[in-house]
Amino acid sequence: MKAIKSRLAAMNFLEFAIWGSYLTCMANYLGPHGLGADISLFYAVQGIVSIFMPAIMGVIADKYIQPQKLLGICHALAAMFMGAAWWYGTTHVQLEFKPFFTLYTLSVAFFMPTIALSNTTAFSILKRAGLDSVKDFPPIRVFGTVGFIAAMWFVNSFYVYDGSFGFSLSNPLGENSPVDPRFQYTVNQLLVCAILGIALFVYCFTLPACLLSKANLQKDSSLMNMLGLNAFKLFKSKKMAIFFIFSMLLGVSLQITNGYATPFITSYLPEFPNSFAAQNATLLTSLSQISEACCILLIPFFLRRYGIKNVMMIAMAAWVLRFGFFSFGGPEFPGVILLVLSMLVYGVAFDFFNVSGALFVEKETSPSIQASAQGLFMLMTNGIGATAGMLAAGAVVNKYCHYEGNYMVGDWHTTWLIFAGYAAVVLVLFALLFKYKHTPEPASK
User: Fold this and answer.
1) pLDDT tops 70 at residue 441
2) Cα separation of 95 and 74, whole Å?
3) Which is nearest to 410 in space by CA: 422, 423, 396, 420?
4) What is the pTM (predicted TM-score) of this model?
5) In sequence order, what are the residues at sequence separation of 6 or more whose Cβ sits closer than 8 angstroms to the Cβ of residue 59?
6) What topology does CATH give the domain 2-214+223-433?
């Protein structure tokens, strides 16, 4: 049993290290290379492909290809296209939107389904081993966050310049240099992503088999079932319909800080060139994932004691604080304390929604459509919700802020307050509309 948990932990480590290598710092590469006004599109496209790709891959995993093998295939394709995007970036000082965006989009189109597929793989292997997914999955999932953090630290501090490879917590060329070769500012973050993707592709084919449902293969011959649309029948339940709708509304907040936190923090460099926070925006942002790693371990207790409604309300309140602290924070004392607090509440904001939501869907759906149901959850959150959120956030940010050289400057205070206000409205509506009676479970001994 311990070996199975360890293997799934390694899978989660690599899964999220791939994402962490570029997700929070890509904007710091795009902006200075001519695509600052298009940052929201690069994050929104993750949502666009999540509208259909996780559902399609969920169907295939339910019926045709074992989830762990499909997980590996998707990572191989994602790594191939991300490697091509890296190569394009190394040969172009100023990026052209169409070719670079196309390669990036193809990569994330195959990566985004892997989040749901990794959950499906873990749940299937845990069940076959006779383990409890609610109890045993969160400690496994925490290694995904550890992987995300490790990748962020690596790209924040490592650099390649003039044939040398090194580590630095400040610009190795000096604070007055217009070039900072650390990976958080360069296209090499995409190379790290591609290499990790290939590693996970190989690893997935060594995992235990996840058996397909013979009932699905033999009996599910209707068009709805063949396309995986049977998961949408969950909307017939008022409880599940409201849950998925608010998952979409809360999903609006998911990618905003991933896209704009590091440009916001880095924008203080001209005024505070010696600020550790401004020089290491990716490292500072990693405190969010450290908080996430800790909060994952609280989920079984909170779900059993308080139920999904209260857990999601806590997550929504944490999003209000996340944006609010950014609005009033800064790179020097005492403002940096607010930035740190914003990072710390992120663990609650993300985990109490994303991980608890996945567990809730797994508990409330039948085994025959579980992969499709997880895909539907991804569609509503990282698909429709995140797409709408990033497009709207991009409009707001571009209204109040703009790039001047390497830095995005402007009225960040108002920008973050707008996002905090939205999260507060969602919280109030959810509290009023989502009805779910929870019976607390006794704590396991």
Assistant:
1) no
2) 26
3) 396
4) 0.83
5) 226, 227, 228, 371, 372, 375
6) Growth Hormone; Chain: A; (1.20.1250)
